[in-house]
Each structure stands twice: as C-alpha cells, then as structure tokens.
Design a protein that fits this description.
This protein has 487 residues and is α/β, with parallel strands linked by helices. Helices cover 47% and strands 14% of the residues. The structure holds zinc ion (ZN). The site of zinc ion (ZN) has 3 residues, from loops.
Length: 487
Amino acid sequence: MLQIYNTLTRQKEYFRPIHEGHVGIYVCGPTVYGDAHLGHARPAITFDLLYRYLLHLGYKVRYVRNITDVGHLEHDADEGEDKIAKKARLEQLEPMEVVQYYTNRYHRDMAALNVLPPTIEPHASGHIIEQINFVQKILDKGYAYISNGSVYMDVEKYAQDFPYGKLSGRNLEEIKTETRELDGQDEKKHSYDFALWKKASPEHIMHWPSPWSEGFPGWHMECSTMGTKYLGEEFDIHGGGLDLMFPHHEAEIAQSCAALGHDSVHYWMHNNMITIAGKKMGKSYNNFITLEQFFKGEHELLSKPFSPMTIRFFILMAHYRSTVDFSSEALEAAEKGLARLTEAYNRLTKLQPGDKTTVELSSLRQLCEEAMEDDLNSPIVISHLFDSARAINTVFDGKATISSADLDELRDVWKTFVVDILGLQMEENAAANGTQDAYKGAIDLLLNIRLAAKQNKDWATSDKIRNELTALGFTVKDTKDGFEWSL
Ligand code: ZN
C-alpha cells in the first residue's frame, strides 16, 4: 500500500483517498514571466511520477496544476511590481502576450521532459470572481480587515483560533521576531499580515473591480480558490517545491481554515531544491540554466547539450525529498546510466527465449513496487533496474538462458516501470541511437568504397566522394589503416 510523506505531520502515512478510487491533486505551477529552468523541472517531474504511479494503481486522478499569471509580486509578498506586468512593460507587450508566450514555451519544455499534462490547468486571471468571493468569506468570518482599499489577513486574530505556522513548523512568536516592525505608516496592522486583495496603484496595469477597490488578488489566494473550486473543500494531495512551504502554503492553509473552518488538504508533499555547484539557484549567482539551454548546451556551466530524458533521469536518480546538486559531471554520469538502461531495454526486446531460466532473476516487479510504495523511492527502483540490466546482458551474451514466460514477465515489468511510471522514453531513445548507428554505418560504407577506388587508382570516384562529403561538412582524414572522419 502506498505510503507518502506528509509534510504536515512530518511522517510517512498510508495514502487513503477521500473518495474511493479517485484522487485529487493540486500542484503549484509556474509564474509565466520567463523560461522554465531546472528548478521548474523538479516539481514537474516529481508530481508527474506521483500522477503516473496513481494511474498505474488504477485511480482516476484529477490533477490540477495552475498557471500564475497575476498577483505574483517581485518580492513574493505584498510589495513590488507584478512580475508579469513588469516583463510586459519592459518588452512592450500586453501582459497576456507575456503569459501566452511563456505558457507555450513551458508546455513545450514539459512535453520534451515527457511530463504528462495536468487534467485541469487553471489561470489565476480566469478566476478573479471566485477569488473575490473567497476573500469575502474570510472577511465575513472576521479574519481579515480592509485598509485603504486592500484586504489583509489578520494573522494575529487567526492565530488565536487556528495554529498558524503548523506546516512550516513555526509559531507566530518566532515569525514576529523574524519580521520587521512597521512604522505606523503601513496599510497593514502587522508586517506578517498578508494581502488577500491589493488595491492597484495607478501604474499597475492588471486590475479588476471588487467591492473594496479596483485591484488584484494576493498571490496566495489563487491556489486556495482554484484548489477548492476544482477538487472540493477537502481534497487529497497538495504539492509544490519546498521553497513554497512558507509563506505560500502556510497562507493557503490559513485562508482555507479562515473561510471554511477547516483544512482543505489531507497530504502536503514537497520536493526538495536543486543546487548548482553547491549554491542555491538565484539571480545573484547568475546560475539559472533554462531547460532550453540544457537541451542545446548553451550555458557556460554546461560541457555539452543534454537530452530531456537525461535531465528527467538525473532528477529521478535522487529521491524527491533529498537535495540534488547539479554539475555537468553529474549530468554526464546520468547520461551514461540512462544509456546502460536503454541498451538493456533494447536487448530485452531482442532476446530469444530458451527452454528454461538459468539466469538469476530477482522478483523485480515486487521490488520496484515496494520502492514506489515507499514514498515514491525512484532511486531504489532505478537500482533494481540496473541489477536487472546485468541479468539481461548475461542472457544477451549467451552465458545464461531465460524461459519464454520469464521473458514475457521481464518485458512487462520493464515497460511498466521504465516507460509508464518513470516516464523514460526508451523507444525514442533507442530510435535516436538506431538512427545514429545507421548514419555512422552509411558514412563508413561510402569511405570504404572510396578506399577501394583509391586502391584501384580510380581517382575520379575517390575525389568525388571526398569532395562531396567535405561540402556536406565532414572532415575526412586518410590514415595508415584507412580513414577517420568527423562532422
Ligand atoms: Zn500555489
């Protein structure tokens, strides 16, 4: 039975869905004002693994992953320019052009990583009325106040009735000591109060009418609103990166409890962060590497291009709750590991069954299932697959045999875990490798014809092959054993 680590209770729990056979998942999606980078790939792949595994278990899954296109301010709190509006101003575009452009590119990158699309992908800007209604409910319950056209969560009032900070393990006293005191000029009563609705300043271009002001919703409001709209007032799983736990998810809990009187989420799941050469990814380090840069090899920290499947495999090689440190060397190691699995997968499709099984076969299906049930332990699944790859290679090399029934089972387990659950595109990888092999073979063939022509003193044919390959961009070098070539 599946166990998942619940950030809220800080322990692994058996997963029991609210409605039998159905699972509702909400995952915080991207704020679409720039290209997706490695930090976006990790939550997308982590929750894709969860989604794929739940589908494998036979659940009907409603998977909601939002697009943040309004209300995410520069300082992630209640201050600064809207990130999308700023990009629109700098690029002289409509904000919705920025949103569409980066949403399209996000979808393209996710498809490359073989991340399945969510079943619902709601935009914050498409749910303004619902957000206004949600804010009104919190006001009606007395946990928010209006100040100069903006609406703020009254955290102190809330904390008298509910445990504020329970997800991140903080309490209000600690939070108070961490935050600066207000000078009395601020709209907010306390610095730790957060905006549910913000009155738009004159230069703010994205705004909507509300009972309180012409303005826009606070960033945390969209997830409470869209999560409960599509999954119900209580739903199974809420996921996101660890960096969102505070204040974003803590605020979501407060909003739900304040409006509805109870939590909305049964299991909170958080993927850990990726560091780059030991450093956090951040503007100040200039180490944001976009996925497109990985795929093209266009960044000073990259030794070469890395395929989307290598990135996916690299992320799955670590458990989602552990930190991952990126380096070019680590990616090269992942690439080699993936090549070994791909080779074994190809060999598995070609193996001929023998009369009986003489190779040592572990109970691969059970081992992989146990690993997945243990809080989605993908690195353990991968290590079992490597063990299995060794067995496959032994049979392939003719040192052992495998029966027809065992071969069918092995093929099915590999297809289930490698392709369906880990989401690694083996066929396409194999096809790409096959194309490479065929291409190399064709060039070798041409150069062997040229070698024979030279030995027959047929200079016309020899020169024609050499010149035309050179014109196509190949470098051909004669050596004492024959030839060498490169592109
Ligand atoms: Zn969110």
